[in-house]
Every structure is written in structure tokens, then in C-alpha cells.
Specification:
It is built from 6 helices and 12 strands. By secondary structure, the chain is of the alpha/beta class. The chain folds into 2 domains: 41 residues, 2-Layer Sandwich (Phosphorylase Kinase, domain 1), CATH 3.30.200; 168 residues, Vaccinia Virus protein VP39 (Rossmann fold), CATH 3.40.50. The strands form 2 sheets. It has a 7-stranded mixed β-sheet, sandwiched between helices. α4 packs parallel to α6. The longest helix has 14 residues. The protein starts with a strand and ends with a strand. The relative contact order is 0.14.
Amino acid sequence: MEVMDHTFGRVFTDRGRVYTASMQPGKRVYGERLYTVSGTEYREWDPRRSKLSAYLTVGGRCFPFRSDSRVLYLGASSGTTPSHVADVCCEGRVFCVEFAQRMFRDLVKTCEGRPNMMPILGDATRPSEYAMFADSVDIVYQDVAQKRQADIVCDNMDAFGAEFGMVAVKARSEDVTAPPEQIFEATEARIRERGYRILDARSLEPHEKAHEMIVFRRDD
């Protein structure tokens, strides 16, 4: 294995595969493969298990995460993708919001040993409920499979003053009958209506069916 720097900060690639440098060497979060090169352990970031990795794998060109970024992650589930984000934002903070109690228990375990990850049991549609845990952030990342995905991410961006937003839009969660392309166009339009500028929008096929990643920022 020969790991190379990716275009985006602390993300690394090797023969088309994506990796992050582990903050917790020797620890697997979801059975991912670990590799050590020149004394640094890398975790393979599986695009079949992470929409953010899928976005990078299909050629995504906007990745606002930096080593000191403060990230509000909505829909953290058991912490698979948030753990990689924590690797990237090693000097920052990842506030992980999850609503389902069973997944939250797994998330708490994932956060153990990763001091820059904070698990928060909360409803992404009600940012005021967890405002006391995360006062201001640089990025809001959303992977919440329910209706009004555009408004949920924008409400949180407004509440926490974030500059950048990313939302993994699941078309079938918005409307099971409408064509996915129609859902994606409507979601992008709503984000623009809320005062944000789209930086990138692309399908996550073949890794995720009927999904699109939208990256946007505050349009000052």
C-alpha cells in the first residue's frame, strides 16, 4: 500500500480507495481495514458504508472539512462516518446528533477514545434542544432520512452560524413516487431560497441509489 495525500487536507487515497489517518490506532469502528504506512495507521473509508466517502469516490469537488473545523453532524447513527470526520478534524470538534436511542448507545461507544467527538441525543428538527452543547460551528453535515431535508439543514445552519453545509438527500424519504431528479432539483431550489449558494451537487450512484450530495455555503 502506498498512501498519497488527497486534494482535500487529511484525506488520503491509494488506487481509488479513500482513507483517513486514525485518531485511535488499532480500533475498528465498523470492521474497516487498517493499514500502517511509515508509522501512521490509516482506516479505509468504505463508500458503501458512508455517503461522504461515496461523494469523494465519485469525484466530489467541495470538501470544507479542515483539521480545526467544528462540525455539527445530524443523523450520526452509530458513528461510522462521524468517526472518519473526527479523524479529518483532529484539532476541531464533531458534535454528533442522533435521535434513535438504540443507535445512540452505539454512537456513545464509538465516541469513547475520540475526545473530539461529542454524542448528543436530540432531534435534528429542533436545534434549540441541543444549542447548549454546540454554540457555533463551521459546517453542518446532514444525513437524516426524512421529509424537509433542505429546511432541516438550513435551520441548523441558521441556528449555529455555519458557513458551509452538506446534505445527503435521500429522494425516497421526500417522496416515494416522484422521480429522484425532481426531488434533487426541488431540494437545491429550496436551499437557494433560504439564502445559500450551491457549490456542488452530484449523484452518489453506484454506491447509493437515488441519493445526491449537495454542498453549499452562506451567500453573503
